[in-house]
Structure formats: C-alpha cells, structure tokens
Design goal:
Elements: E1 2-9, H1 14-28, E2 32-39, H2 43-50, E3 55-57, H3 68-78, E4 83-86, H4 91-96, E5 102-105, H5 118-133, E6 136-139, H6 142-151, E7 159-161, E8 181-186, H7 195-202, E9 211-216, H8 222-231, E10 238-242, H9 247-251, E11 256-259, H10 268-275, E12 279-283, E13 298-300, H11 303-311, H12 321-334, H13 337-356
Parallel strand pairs: 1-2, 1-4, 2-3, 4-5, 5-6, 6-7, 8-9, 8-11, 9-10, 11-12, 12-13
Helix pairs in contact: 1-13, 7-11, 10-12
C-alpha cells in the first residue's frame, strides 16, 4: 500500500509531531509512506528526511497559489499514491487532491473562536466541501465529532474517532527538582489558546512558594503576553521559551502541564505530559482534552481554582515517583502511536475496498 500524508509545512506543532511519529510506525508496518508538504520547510520536514521518510515538496508559495504548472506538477506527484491522508486544507491542497482516494483527518483547524471574517467563512466552506468528498473522515475526539456536525454539518455517522498517539518512550521517568514547582504551558501564542488564563492564575500563587512558569511556543500574542506577565508582577517567574521542537524533553523536567485552552480538539500535549510523568491540569471547558486526562488529572473551573491547585502540589503525592510512573505507564498504554496507526490502516483498507467494488 502506498500512502501519502498531506499537510501544509513541517513547522513545530502537534499535528506535525503526530504525522512524523505516524509515518515512522507505518513504514515499520510495511506501508510505502511519503509526506507531501505544501512547503517542505521546518524542523519536522527535516526530521522526516533524517528518518528516511520520502518528502514531496509541492512548492506552494501561499495558501492561494493556483499557478497551473505547480498544480499540475503536484497532482502528478500525489497520483503515485493509493491513498492520500490529508491533515489540513487550503485552496491549492483542495485542488491538488481532487479526484484521489482520500482519508481526511480534521484535527480542529476550523478557526473556532476567531471572528467570522470572510476568509474564515470561506475556509469553512472549503473544509466542508473537502470532507464531503473524502471516503473516510476521522477526528481525534468525540468532542470534535460534535463540532464537525455543528459547524460543518458533517453527519456524525460519517466520522470515526482515531485518538492521537505517542511514540514509545524511556520507561525511566525523570524527577524534577523538588525545591521548586515547575509548570509548563505548550501551545501557539494565539488568542484561541487562552494562555492569559495561566498567567492570571500564576499571579495568584502565594509569593512564598517557589514556582516557575515555562511557556513554549510562538505566535502573534508574544508581546502582549509578555506585557501581561509584567503587569501581573510575575515576569521574573515566567520564561518565554519560544518554539520547542523536543516537547518530550521539556515535559520531562516539569511538575505539571497546564492546558488553558477552551474547546481544545484533542490536546496531544496532555498525553505527552502524562507520558513524561507530569501532572496535566485542564479547564472545565477544555473540550476534547477532557477525554484524555489520566485518572489523577486535574480539572479546574477558573483561574482561582488553578492557582489553588498549583499551590497544593509541592510535597504532594501527585509529584512523587510512584504517581509519575503510573501516569507514564497509563499514557503509553492508552495512547500508543501503534494503535493510532492500526486504526488508520483500517481506514486505508476501507478506502481501497470501496475502489475495488463495482462503481467504487
């Protein structure tokens, strides 16, 4: 079977990490796998090449690049696959994959929480058209099944849930230093990620508690969030790390991971944090992230509750070696990338079976 994953670029993000790990496992399973990028740049495009995964550069200048020669060349390259597995849409990718056997995974890139501008509305229409023509539609959480039904009118019975998975990790879980509470937030510095909630909560932690907040990511609100940290008087307790490619290494050195997002489609970093032994904490409106918390994961209702939960952590059993090891084992058992690959393999088989049927 020849499968090509299609996504925009190889930048740092949960989707890119997921496709990288998935492609490596699928190759081990005997699938002839490639990854096609609209723009084959970024750390994860480089990681694909380094891992021996063939990379196809569709050489698109932008999400509106409709040059006929580029579209024709891209369609020819993608036609060499039995199945295209598409992980995001824009107009040129829509045209490049037209008429091909498709598995479409909607990771949650619907512009939720953004103003309903003309570009946002146009992209919603494009996504709806793309998903309607896919042979199989997948999404990582039951929450997203409801979102797709509500926003794009995709019938629930057409969507199957394939949870994201994590690669096998070192069974030895790192133990952060016990003299300081280290908390991480990982995500794009954009309004939808609500990182301001983590900063507001951190400002309410008692000053006599040694605590540090690490914020990994980049985005349009970088300056605004730095200004907020200064306004709250916590700039000396907050470190803005910028983009971090090795998220697992970062999480291995923290006590807790806070996911402040409202309406998160899945929240791969929650599982990655548990796998590293860190305690995940999410908000009650976290959407799909509520479906993937470990048994001792924490749910808070607002910033005040988050501050109180963090203040209780130093010296608690939640940060002890047994709790960290149990979380790690749970994450690897419940969300292995091998299971994700198996479920996608079933989707690919279904697509090819349909093609073999008369009139398929």
């Amino acid at each position: 079977m020849r499968v090509t994953h299609v996504l925009w670029n190889g930048g740092i993000g949960g989707i890119e990490r997921q496709v990288h790990d998935l492609a490596l496992v699928q190759r081990e399973q005997g699938i002839e796998v490639r990854v096609a990028f609209g723009q084959a740049v970024g750390p994860f495009a480089d990681a694909m090449r380094a891992g021996g995964i063939p990379v196809v550069d569709l050489a698109l200048r932008s999400g509106y690049d409709l040059r006929p020669n580029v579209v024709a060349r891209g369609r020819s390259a993608l036609a060499q696959s039995d199945v295209l597995h598409v992980h995001g849409w824009n107009l040129p990718l829509f045209l490049l994959t037209r008429g091909r056997p498709l598995v479409a995974t909607e990771h949650g890139t619907l512009g939720l929480g953004r103003r309903r501008t003309l570009p946002v509305r146009a992209k919603r229409l494009l996504q709806r058209a793309a998903l309607s023509r896919a042979a199989v539609v997948t999404t990582p959480s039951n929450y997203m099944v409801d979102v797709l039904a509500r926003t794009l009118r995709v019938p629930r019975e057409r969507v199957r849930v394939v949870p994201n998975g994590i690669a096998p990790g070192d069974p030895r879980v790192a133990q952060p230093r016990g003299d300081e509470l280290v908390v991480a937030v990982v995500g794009r510095l954009a309004a939808v990620k609500r990182i301001d909630r983590a900063l507001d909560a951190f400002a309410q932690i008692p000053h006599d508690l040694r605590a540090r907040l690490l914020i990994a990511g980049s985005g349009p609100l970088d300056g605004e969030l730095r200004a907020l940290a200064a306004a709250r008087g916590i700039e000396d307790r907050v470190a803005f790390l910028g983009p971090v490619a090795d998220v697992a290494a970062l999480l291995g050195g923290v006590d807790a991971l806070v996911l402040p997002t409202s309406g998160e489609p899945f929240g791969l970093v929650v599982v990655e944090a548990a796998a590293a032994g860190a305690l995940p904490i999410v908000f009650a409106d976290a959407g799909g992230a509520l479906e993937i918390l470990p048994p001792d994961g924490v749910v808070v209702g607002d910033e005040r509750e988050l501050a109180a939960a963090l203040a209780r952590l130093p010296g608690s059993a939640s940060l002890g070696p047994d709790a960290r090891r149990a979380r790690s084992e749970w994450a690897h058992e419940m969300f292995s990338i091998e299971t994700t690959a198996r479920l996608y393999g079933e989707a690919y088989d279904e697509v090819l079976t349909r093609l073999d049927r008369p009139g398929g």
